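DATA SHEET
Item: assembly model
Revision: 1
Owner: S.N.
Input lines:
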Amino acid sequence: MSSPATRPESPTSDQQTSRASPRSWIENLRSKPWLSKIAPGEAQLFLLLAIIIGLFSGLLVVCFQISIEWMRLWLLGPSLDPKKLNVLLAPALGGLAVAVIVMKVFPRVRGSGVNQTKAAVYIYDGYIPFSTVVGKFLTCALAIGSGHSLGPEDPSLQIGAGVASALGRRLRLSREKIRLIAPVGAAAGLAAAFNAPISAVLFVIEEVIGRWNSGVLGAVILSAVSGVVVERGLMGAEPLFRVPVYRLVHPSELLAYALLGIVGGLSSVFFVRLIGSLRPRLKALPRRTQYFQPAVAGLLIGLLGLGVPQVMGAGYHTVDQIINAQFAWRMLALLAICKILATSLSFVSGTPGGMFAPTLFIGAAIGGAVGSLEHHFFPVLTGSLGSYALVGMGTLFAGFLRAPMTSVFMVLELSGNYSIIVPVMISNTLAYLISRHYLKTPIFDMLARQDGVDLPSMEEQREAIALRVEDAMRDAGNMVVDAEDSVNTALERTRRSPETQFLVRYQSGNWTTIEAAVLLALAGGEEGSLPLEELHTNPWMPVLHPDEPLDYALQKMDDWPLLPVVSRADFRRLEGVVSVDDVLRAYKRAATSQDSSQVPSNM
Amino acid sequence: MEPRVKPGLAEFSIPTESPKRFICWLLRASRGIIFRMEGDRRCPKCGQLIPRGEADCPHCRVENSPANYTPQAVLLLCLLGLVVLFVTTGFTVRAFHAKQQQLGQEFFGRGEAELKAGQPEKAIVDFRTALIYSRDNDLYQLHLAQALMAANHTEEARSYLSDLWEREPESAEVNLELGRLAARAGDINQALRYYHSAVYGEWEGPNISEQRRQARLELYHFLVRRGANGQAEAELEALAAELPADDAILHTQVGDLFLKSGQFDRALREYLAALNGDKNQKEALAGAGEADFRLGNYRYAWPYLRRALNEDPGNTELAQMLEMAKLILSIDPYAAELTSAERNVRVLRAFDQGVSRVQLCARQRGESLEEMPGKSAGKWPTESQVPPQSQSSLQRLYVQAMKMKPRMKPSVLSRDPDLATEALDWVREAESLTSSVCGEPTGLDEAIVLVERKYGGIQK
């Protein structure tokens, strides 16, 4: 990287092969006096890039959505009640074409896209080849447009991540930044597909990144907003669904939503188990069968579609109809079951596509069915069937995808009505707990493990016990002497202690150490009556507090054998001491207790 | 943290165990797919992980690429690419929206035709499809709601209409449909609310006044059907107040409604207003004649009825009414311009008719008027001789008439005006009794009854 003060002469071959990185470019800008005031830092450049990624992702997602619609019009026709021959053959032929493309040209586009993005972040340093973007675009448009029961959101997430990765590599960002830029693009793609920026940001943080990193949060939000702005600007600001007004009339109605949460939780368990059991079986078949698996799945979906055409494709129109109470409870139950079957067939056969839209569909159908039944038996209930369908969508999102925060905000964004938050939280929580009880591994982690990839589980990370200093500290015993004490007094106090070093406490709240040998040496002479603070010259020790994370203690430990743990309200009050050995012992204890409480996964 | 890879994946190496394996490797390498089968590995140059399926290290590839632009150039290309993509996407979106609009119109037209042909279920499917292609189209949604109502899917219709109402609470058409829903459910209060909102709401298209009138008319008919007559009358009054002065047809229609509801004076006012606009309008003439007839203004009714019959000669109802009016005018003994002789003649005629009516009625009931208790040798019993309780009403009336009959002569009537009054009182009572026991009168009897009603004698 050339120094900012020198001006390179003619570039050598070495210089040609290693061009200036953004950092050196920024340094060059800053060397110019008039530019230095306005030249952006790397952080600002990252944010600018986030906006560009958001715009790109938004445009691509719009094209993607239009491509799916064109495919549907071409293969299935414009009517809600397509011709029987089209219904039967389109998914099968579409599946066959998709299989050939995937096997021969774009092998990396299988799956929904979420795990693939996570793998890029955690394994491949944020690398997603641009061919994946192209392949995902084409194959998913064909698959969903031909009638496979999959959604466009997850592929949009991967498309956005792929665009971000390509841009990041071209701009030669640092390894760390390239790893972070993929989630930025993922948020943009998902936000544009869902038309819901908050949910997209939360999902990416909840499921892809796994932590609230302030360094990337701003970029994720910017890109999501940019993507949504583009999408709304081109496709209109209409919400995804027409949602009826909701009003909670009596708190006892919350029991009805609680029941929905239970049903939704059990349904999500069934759904996950179905996918979890079918997918390994199909993967275990000979490789040549993968050319035909999507086609066979398509044929079966076509057969389902002859009776229930609503289960084909993403199904947003049907969700809209469900929310507006256009089906009886029997039809809704049938739709839910058929959609679970159709989505399972599509997904386990290896057809590229997402599961968000089918999850919403199944949730809406279950919510509508449960709401209808409850209205039948308890006519006093005033909540509309649409509100049950809406809550049902969030419920299944929480139970199936195990993204509780995203599911709550998604329902809020889709409905635009804050008063629905209480039923949503109750129902989603119940579904989430039921799903957690019966399924130790969330769906995305299960799929990753089936693919032979061990990605970090965001759920496990969220629920991992955070160790604190108080978990490792021990009693200081007789280790403390006050700086006002004389040497002789200090020695008298510490005579019986086996320690070789003692902590010296000052009035100001600072701490330092003194060796026992030094005390002995000073006690025998004239300095024996002098206070320690006049004689002692060791540097101040860093202090810890009991609530601080334990890894913070390791960072501060440096060469100190131990550190004092003091109260935040009074630095002179010693709560305990902690050493490196204490920290390691605490980690070991935690690991031992976690291992003993874990039940082997049943997936 | 070292990223984990699938256990068991080895670094790439050329298999030399057997010629067959080496040839297979060579073939695969020439097709560039060998690396997919070998899994992930590390780049010897930069140490980065090379993903499965990549022929070489993607990081080094970027570094060594001949198209190796500076970051500034990449950003510039990005911006250019954005512009190009914006333009391309814009064109694509426009074409897509045009196609959607076209499909929406196509399905909407189909749905309209099916709804008009009385096939609401098919229309529903087509309207729904149209809405898919034009989601924010309120017209499509409104028509879908109408089709749903026609097919008796009222809950779904309500859902769509409520959604529309939330967005456009002042839309007259939406309020009208909601009013119709409420009317179907029999909810008078809701119907009143929505119909009024429709009447005073924002209408689209031509002839807004006519649409408002129709809405109010619909409400009126609903209220009449539900028996809310007071509210119905109020609506009719409001309707009448809004009519243009020169529209004869409208005034006639409203007059008909007043007539039907029994408000003859209001009906007459509307008919006269109609005749002001078109003096030969036959419905208005007929209506005015009938209104006057019902009000007892037979003198005024007769010319209207005559003119109406001239315009509509085949109308038997009009003809009957006209005949009756003429008869009434010819027998009315209370008419102001009569001479005493003419009055006496009419009184005698009424009296004789009354006696005939009593006789006929008694015959119908099987009562004998000639042989009754107390009568002997042509002499009618007095009340002291035969208690009134032992006679039927008809017999009592007949006795009274027979006692009066010897005096019922024009000369006696001229001398004794009280006799005329007594006779007419008797006629009134006789006609009233015979109407109640022997059915409604016809002909001259009916005319006599109508005359008596006009002057407050016989109550309906």
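QC remark: Chain B is about 70% helix and 0% strand.
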